[in-house]
Amino acid sequence: xxxxxxxxxxxxxxxxxxxxxxxxxxxxxxxxxxxxxxxxxxxxxxxxxxxxxxxxxxxxxxxxxxxxxxxxxxxxxxxxxxxxxxxxxxxxxxxxxxxxxxxxxxxxxxxxxxxxxxxxxxxxxxxxxxxxxxxxxxxxxxxxxxxxxxxxxxx
Length: 155
Description:
Blueprint: E1 2-4, H1 6-9, E2 15-22, E3 36-49, E4 53-67, E5 74-86, E6 97-99, H2 101-110, E7 126-127, E8 130-131, H3 135-140, H4 146-152
Antiparallel strand pairs: 1-6, 2-3, 3-4, 4-5, 7-8
């Protein structure tokens, strides 16, 4: 997402306002847990802070599709995140445009949930000699190592 900076650099304006939908090519998330991104939108500003650096502030929203931690099905996850970034490292001398897509992508990656599930009924996840149990069931189950703990004693 390229942003023109000329008017800001020439001090004709103090703030560049950004209110845009955008897309990120699927090649960007090949090495991530993201399957798909939809409805990406950034609403924010770029300001010139005493000519030392540019400041990006705004709200990034969208929907990412990730794999369910239990069923492995594709599920949507709506996210929104506040962005406050200094842009001095990506502004090149003599250029009047900036691509903020890298900054937006980095903030999207930070929003990927570690585990997400929509599964309510765990009873369908069982096999020969095994079954998936909830944490509550695990706490209330007989611990097969309890006899060993009793013999050794807890330290």
